Amino acid sequence: METAISLPNRLFYIAEKYAEKHGLSRSELYAAAVSEFIEKREKKEKNDITRRINEICDTADISPDPQIIAAGRRILRDSEW
Fold this sequence. Notes:
By secondary structure, this protein is mainly alpha-helical. It has one domain (9-78). The protein has helices at 9-21, 26-59, 66-78. The protein is rod-shaped. The termini are far apart.
């Protein structure tokens, strides 16, 4: 697929030099750059979601309900061992 993009002159020349130095075509360089950019963003998004879930879990009250504790004690007390 062909596409046209606009780049600042300085970035264009830096990219051209890099591609030439590393034996890449302009298309190969830009395709690799876009692919890496997307992979990093997706990884960051996943990490952000995990971080937010962890923050919510850290603030959640996970202590057992007193009624459940009492019921458990009654069951244990009334059970034959």
